[in-house]
Amino acid sequence: MTTGMRHDRDGAPQPQRFVISFAGFNRPWAVWIAHRLEEHGHRVALQRWDPQAGRGLTEALEDLARSGGRILVVLSERYFSAGTRTDEEWNAALRTVTGAHPDRFAAVCLTDSPLPSAVAALEKTDLWGLDAYEAEYRVLRRLELPTDRIGTESGRRGPRFPNDPPEVWGRVPRRNPRFTGRNDVIGALRSALTEAPPGASTVTLLGLSGVGKTQVATEYAYRFASEYDVVWWVPAEDRPTLRERLADLAPALDLPRGAGSYGEQIRAVLEALRRGTPYHRWLLVFDGCDHPDDLIDLLPSGAGDVIITSRNREWAARHTSLVEVPLYARPESVTFIRRRARRLSGDEADRLAEALEDYPLALDQTAGWLADSPLGVGEYLTLLRRRLDTHEAVTLSDDYPLPFPTALAILLNNVRENFPDALALLRLFVFFAPGRVPLRLLREFPAADVPEHLAGLINDQIRWNAALNKLVQFSVVRLEYSDLSVEEGGGGLETVQLHRMVHNIVRDDLGEEEAEQLSRAVRQVLAAADPGRPTDSRLWPRYAELIPHLETAGVLTSTNPGIQNFLLHCLRYLILAGEYRTCLRLAEETDGAWRSMLGEDHDQVRELSYHHGGALRMLGHFRRAEVLAKSVADRLVEERGDRDLETLRATSTYAGVLLGTAKFEQARLLLEHAFTTYRELLGEDDSTTLNAQNNVAVALRLLGRYQEAYDTDLDTLRRRERVLRVRHIATLSSGIGCAMGLRLMGRYREAQARQEQGLKLNAQVLGPNHPQTLRAEHNLGMCLRRAGDIPGAGARLRGVLERSTRVFGAEFPWTLMVASDYATYLREYGDVGEARRISEEVVRGYQSQLGLAHPYSIGTVGNLGLVLRAQGEREEALNLAEQALVGMRGALGDRHPWTLGCALNATGHRNITGRLEDAVDLSRETLRAAGQVLGPDHPMTLSAEIALAADLRAVREDVEASKHEDAGLRALMRTLGPQHVHTVSARQQTRPYWDFEPQP
Predict the structure, then answer these.
(1) Angle at CA 483, nearest 5°, toward 550 and 236?
(2) Strand 17-22 and strand 70-75: pairing?
(3) Which whole number is the average pLDDT over 483-488?
(4) Neighbour-count burial of 938, counting CB atoms closer than 10 A to its CB (0-12 exposed, 13-18 middle, 19+ buried)
(5) Is residue 909 within 8 Å of residue 922, measured between CB atoms?
(6) 881 within 8 A of 924, measured Cβ to Cβ
């Protein structure tokens, strides 16, 4: 069987050619052996062993021998189960082929399980359980190759030794020892990942429920694990769980932990993956993401690979490649069934596969049952046909092939008759959401609230484990284990996963009385797990774990006050965490049920309205929010008066909506009344009083009273730092308010310094894509621009706009605000054409959301006029500038800073279109008003003075023009410095302009 080493005339060994034959399951070993042989100068070809059904083993082995070179076979149980042949067939084929080619075949072995006896002719050497050095030594010795250069590397990075796991391996489901076929799918997946452009290796595995998408992704992770440093699995059925699991990667990468929340971890993880530090080769799997908007902003970029499993074809439009996961091919079905139920013949497996339409989940569950059942295949198929003919199957969507519910019904009947504990446990599981159920919740079940037979099961660990194991045996549930060490609280069973299709069928089969008992018990478990403090970002991961189960357990329609309070806590968490769409959906579903159960005036309905209105407001649905908030406030004022605490809360909420609809003065009066009354009733340092004080500052800022707003913000910040501490979300918000105030007053350097530190804290505590973090980064971008760091400002504004668009959408209020500011940046320092496109989109967005008369619609029309002026469309630009001036005067009066800014721009448009006297008159008026409203050294006042000088020169009033120009320049150098962009522009006699900036 062996042959001597080939040498050239000088006695040096010659390179040889090898073909490595392996089962796909053992690919990591084949790739590693090939790499080691190539490092020794040999040529190697890989040949996956996949004999087709109906083709003889001898013929397949003969084809392998014809490939040329020596054949090294990687032996394992999987090699011999491909095609599911008997030991007798293997022995006959091996004896025939090795006898005909005595010097061509050699083998390495990865198992100590019994193998066909004729394997002895291959003179195998064992590799399992060895280190890399010993394994390479044995391979070389078996092939009679020199062993003096073991471990030699040519410089190219090779695959990891298969016995060495990736540096980071995170919660990948256990490998399925019965995984069958799918080689074409895995090959297509591998090709799509390797051939993608740099930074874009994202592939979506698309297919029906139960077709095996998760199994394919799992198998890929194991087969190619040796080529990655990091392999991390992320359940992605819902966004809160997805974010929590992604954040868990931070400590695994040895990144700094966030201070009590997973915000910093998410930011750090995405940045580490993008940069490829500390690991360059990584694979992330997002399993079960059927809603692309939940994931798109969290997709990592960089040199690694991303796999998504989904039923949603919309991923094709989200910059991912699609790889379809079809039903099994018939040979795959037959092989899988015979691995699952060894007592079945090939013909029986074929008949069963045909009856179940090659549907993987149905095959798995049915074959798992038949493996231990005395029922024959013929009897089973008769039963299946009878149920189909009589339409006994559950009616489901078109996603479910018709035989599946029928096959599942037969399986459940067997479980009901023979394994009642397993059925009871399964029925309990279906009142949690499909997907992963933390066992921590199941262990805390209130036995007193469930049926008697289930109470006994919950209290008996042995019965519980036996029932759970039976469900696993039948592939009804899957178990997942913690990756944490025992010392870290892991090392054991962590979640039970129930497939969505099984979940729906079992739930629909339950009687009304039992269903109500079980759902009530699950609601009690969820409520008992309520951390109780949704404002504490350190507890947000625990809320994220509970959110997916609210609807399934009937929390939204519960009449229990304790359950209702738990739901309100969850909604509060969603608002604070920036998950506005989820909050709005849950609030709207709950609202109708609660109003019909409790009445319009119930305290719980009113509490729900605050969260409902908050989500509406944050998503830009201001008119709906105003109607909702006003109805609550009016009712309470009438019933309780305007000094009642609940009335104050309702009127403050209403005032917050009024700020969004530009009724600033009306809102200020309500907010100041609330603040002074809270201060009298609760004290000046109470958190509710501080919230009211913060709201007053927002109103003052929107009214253009910047110094008063800053003073109020600063006092609120100092009190919040003392009462709530520095890292509280409300304290961080006050910090942003102070930085904004400094910027709006023209104290740009101070604003920048404060906001740089504030951004770091917001990102650490809340995460990079939280709305408040985006607000902080946006304000930093504006500070940088005003301070003269033009490249830094552009990068910040562009990054915030991209993230806000991905996370919230182009029409989201925050997105429109940032887009407006980025467009003004592009007009001056970038692409004017792109600035016009964005400006027009912003105008349309604001006019659609807020109406034509809202200051944001008016101000962004003025910004668009500046773009048109830059493109040479002077008359149309003048029309828009005059329209903005008239509109802003009507909305806010003559002395609001926004009106003065529109006036400043209108003077410039009048000047360049020849209306020189009109320009001078308006410039004088604007300078006088700006000095009175904002002060003589405010940047807008100084811009008005420089603009007046330009208009005076145009009418040949040179002496007065010089006087104003000199005064403006001296003030600019004193306040902003001689090299500031505004100072330089004034020195060059470049006419100033004003950009309207929508306020958050």
Answers:
(1) 40
(2) parallel
(3) 44
(4) buried
(5) no
(6) no
What does the pLDDT read at residue 929?
Answer: 96
Pairwise CA distance, residues 189 & 322, whole Å: 9
Helix (H) or strand (E) holding 202: strand 202-206
Asked whether 27 and 55 are in contact (CB, 8 A), the reply is no
- Rounded to 10 degrees, the C-alpha dihedral 802/807/813/816 comes to 20
Instruction: Tell me how far apart the alpha carbons of residues 128 and 377 are, in angstroms, rounded to a whole number.
Output: 38
Mean pLDDT (the chain) is 86
Query: What are the structure tokens assigned to 455, written together?
Result: 């109470």
- pLDDT tens digits along 55-85: 678 888 888 888 778 999 999 877 887 656 7
How many CB atoms neighbour CB 76 within 10 A?
A: 19
Please list the residues that pair with 204 across neighbouring strands.
308, 322
Can you tell me which residue has the tokens 């049952």? 369
Measured CA to CA, the distance from residue 188 to residue 82 in angstroms comes to: 20
- Per-residue tokens: 110: 């990865």
How far, CA to CA in Å, does 780 sit from each of 495, 695, 765, 771, 859?
42, 22, 17, 14, 21
Which amino acid is located at 334 in the chain?
Answer: V
Edge-to-edge strands of the sheet including 43-48? 43-48, 17-22, 70-75, 105-109, 125-126
DSSP secondary structure of 481-520: E--S-GGGT-SSEEEEEE-HHHHHHHHHTS-HHHHHHHHH
Residues in the chain: 1000
Contacts of residue 11, defined as CB under 8 A and 6 or more positions apart, other chains included, come to none
Contact predicate 243/298, CB 8 Å: yes
Instruction: Report the side by side order of strands in the sheet with 435-438.
Output: 435-438, 493-498, 477-481
Token match 């439009």: residue?
317
97 to 4, 83, 90, 300, 717: CA distances (angstroms): 20, 18, 11, 50, 83
Instruction: State yes or no: cis peptide before 768, omega within 30 of 0.
Output: no
Instruction: Could you list the beta-strand ranges (E) of 49-150.
Output: 70-75, 105-109, 125-126
The predicted-structure confidence for 106-154, as pLDDT tens digits, reads as follows 999 988 778 888 888 888 888 877 888 888 999 999 998 988 888 777 6
Q: How confident is the model at residue 345 (pLDDT cuts 50, 70, 90)?
A: confident
793-810 in b/e form (b: 16+ CB < 10 A) is: bbebbbbbbebbbbbbee
Question: Beta-carbon neighbour count of residue 11 at 10 Å?
Answer: 6
First to last CA, the chain: 80
Measured distance CA(24)–CA(19) in Å, rounded = 15
Residues 722, 686: contact at Cβ < 8 Å? no
Residues ≥6 apart with Cβ < 8 Å to 353:
328, 330, 333, 334, 337, 363
Q: How far apart are CA 984 and CA 930, in angstroms?
A: 22
Distance CA 897, CA 917 (A): 23
Short-list 853, 857, 861, 899, CA closest to 878 = 861
Task: Read off the tokens for 557.
Answer: 């329609």
| 916 token code pair | 């020189």
Digit-coded pLDDT (tens) for 316-325: 877 788 898 8
Residue 985: other Cβ atoms inside 10 A: 16
Task: Round to whole Å and give the CA distance between 406 and 387.
Answer: 7
Q: Which long-range contacts (CB under 8 A, 24 or more apart) does 116-124 make?
A: 116/80, 116/87, 116/90, 116/91, 117/87, 117/91, 118/90, 118/91, 118/92, 118/94, 119/75, 119/94, 121/1, 121/94, 121/95, 122/1, 122/73, 122/75, 122/94, 122/98, 123/1, 123/2, 124/75
SS3 43: strand
By the 8 A CB rule, do 119 and 107 touch?
Answer: yes
CB hemisphere CA count around 293 (13 angstroms) = 10
